[in-house]
Amino acid sequence: MQNPLPSQYPLIQAPLAGAQNSAMTIAVCRAGGLGSLAAAMLPIDKLEQEIQTIQAACDKPFNVNFFAHTLPEITSEQNDKWLNLLDKYFNELGIDKNALPQGVLRRPFDENQLSIVEKYRPSVVSFHFGLPEKRLLDAVKATGAMVLSSATTLKEGLWLQENGADCVIAQGVEAGGHRGVFLENDLSTQMGVLPLTELLARKLRIPVIAAGGIVDTASIQAALKLGAAAVQVGTAYMLCEESTIGVLHRQALENAARLPENYPTAVTNIFSGRPARGIVTRLMQETGFIHKDALPFPFAATATGALKAVAEKQGNTDFSNLWCGQNPTGCKNISAYDLTRELLAAFE
């Protein structure tokens, strides 16, 4: 199947918000894959700096990823319910719930981010949680960028095709981090990567990129056989030398890679307000993984981020969002360049 991407090989390093910077993007691009820069948590000046670093280091095409959610209005009643749910943990860690520090807010794609895209014209621009409004998307496409976005169901894939995506990322339920859900919140509709890839490849006119549980040459080849035109790999890059995750998250991934049976993952909305997959922790278990009183994305992260910060200073991951896919066995403490070269053997 013809490579739909501008990179040498049809392999994308998944954008890892909060877990990478330009160093990983550059390493993957140099190896022949499509390196991605996760922009959703970057201030505009930092985003510009990171893109400048990439373009100065290599002349390869790369992907910049943004979130396309809508910021909700939060009522005082919603906020009180959320804080009351976590009250015992605040008390346990000695945190004043009325004076929580404001962490980095994940902001949706807007005019400021568009101005950076127009200035630096990356070859690929991808979105999570749907697509931005038409006027913004039209402006992105006017730069010549290829536009990708994630679908977790056939309905979402068809919507993306009809609303301007050039390729659809079939995000299977196996994938770590945030689910790309944007049309409906019923998690029972979520599919595994292989059936989702095959279904989308049959029903869509545009190329499909398989994501979720893709960790080695065997899983890449399985996705290609079912109609994927390219693959996206995320969790396997989390242990790479260029990863910016903390020591405790790194230790958890090392343990999960070695003994996955002892480190199960689950989908939860507790950490950010949107469903996301990570290694099971005490907070996830005690709140029931999905809780109706979690503040909508991204506002839940203010409270849980405060819990995480204090607990991790004590070497405790009970309150940490240890993002990880269902198959961590591909995680390796090597350079992203070397991991990419290993994975690219699937296309030889």
Beta-strand share of residues? 5-15%
Shape: globular
For the largest beta-sheet, the strand count, sense and barrel status come to: 8 strands, parallel
Mean pLDDT: 97
Radius of gyration: 19 Å
The level of helicity is 25-40%
Number of domains: 2
In the CATH hierarchy, what is the superfamily of the largest domain? Aldolase class I
Termini gap: 13 Å
Give me the number of helical elements. Answer: 13
CATH architecture of the largest domain: Alpha-Beta Barrel
- Name the strands of the widest sheet in spatial order: 1-9-8-6-5-4-3-2
Helix/sheet category: alpha/beta
Report the top-level CATH class of the largest domain: Alpha Beta
Assembly form of the protein: single chain
Query: In CATH terms, what is the fold-level topology of the largest domain?
Result: TIM Barrel
Q: How many strands in all?
A: 11
Order of helices and strands: EHEHEHHHEHEHEEHEHEHEEHHH
How would you concisely characterize the structure shown here?
This protein has 348 residues and is of the alpha/beta class.
If you had to describe this structure to a student in words, what would you say it looks like?
- The chain is of the alpha/beta class.
- The chain has 2 domains: 1-69 and 106-245 and 330-348, TIM Barrel; 72-105 and 264-323, no CATH class.
- The protein is 37% helix and 13% strand.
- The chain is built from 13 helices and 11 strands.
- It has helices spanning 22-31, 44-57, 76-85, 87-93, 111-120, 134-142, 154-162, 193-203, 217-225, 247-258, 282-287, 300-313, 336-344; strands at 11-13, 36-38, 63-67, 124-128, 146-151, 167-171, 177-178, 208-211, 230-233, 265-268, 276-279.
- The strands form 2 sheets. Strands 1-9-8-6-5-4-3-2 form an 8-stranded parallel sheet.
- Helix 2 links the parallel strand 2 and strand 3.
- The longest helix has 14 residues, at 44-57.
- The chain is globular.
- The mean pLDDT is 97.
